[in-house]
Amino acid sequence: MGTSVYPGSLDNFATTSPAQLVNVDSTGRDHDARHDDLEAAVENIEAELGTNPSSSWSTVTARLAVISQVTHPFTDDVRVQVYDAGKSAWQTSWYDSGKRNVASLLVNGWTGTAVLQRAGMTVRLVLSISHPTTPVATYFNVGTLPAGFAVTAYGTAVYRNSVTGVYTFGRFGMVESALPAANQALTTELLWIPDSTAVPASLPGTLSSAASV
């Protein structure tokens, strides 16, 4: 009966058979032992892989290659996908846009910093902005977010009061209890569920180097 140490470790077989049947190879195996051990190794490989290991793929390697994959649709972002054999399609299991500097999206005279990030099904926006005049209702719109980052129709958000640090749940569109005075900085953090489960068609702004937001 042959012996094989696979799959716990790799077998060591001599690459050259002995010239005479009565001789042994460099591993100490005679002719019969070589046959027996090779047969044992083949059986262990079959037991390890099981039946039909490549399934509907051409090879086992091809099947393993589609278990999961990590891609970067827009260079700076990360998309993790798993292969759904039942649907014969890739399914996104995680997506992270990375932190995006979206100050360019500010409108109506607002200036400052705006960092946007989508991670999974959570969008986070950190604002530190001010207005040259005392804002009125006309200036409630500070910017428009693109698809894949926008708030759902009846979304709620978590607001952080920049003075007290207290987090409060509220309807999206509220920032703090009162608009700031002219040139007074308004800092707030908002969290919400995006308007789509799909990966965004593009990334807004530029990659942010801000480590603290």
User: Number of DSSP strands?
Assistant: 10
User: SSE order in H/E notation?
Assistant: HHEEEEEEEEEE
Major sheet strand order: 9-6-5-4-10
Q: Which of globular, elongated, flat, extended, rod-shaped describes the shape?
A: rod-shaped
* Share in helix: 10-25%
List the total number of helices: 2
pLDDT < 50 runs, ≥5 residues: 171-177
Number of domains: 3
- Sketch the major β-sheet: 5 strands, antiparallel
pLDDT average, as an integer? 80
SS content category = alpha+beta
Radius of gyration: 31 Å
- Distance linking N and C termini: 66 Å
Features:
five-stranded antiparallel sheet, three-stranded antiparallel sheet, 2 helices, 213 residues, alpha+beta, 3 domains
Describe this protein's structure.
The protein is of the alpha+beta class and 213 residues long. It has three domains: 1-51, no CATH class; 60-96, no CATH class; 100-207. The chain has two helices and ten strands. The chain has helices spanning 31-49, 60-65, and strands at residues 68-71, 78-84, 89-96, 100-101, 111-119, 122-130, 156-160, 167-171, 186-192, 206-207. It has a five-stranded antiparallel β-sheet, with no helix packed on it. A hairpin with a 4-residue loop joins strand 2 and strand 3 (89-96). The N and C termini lie far apart (66 Å). The model is unreliable at 171-177 (pLDDT under 50).
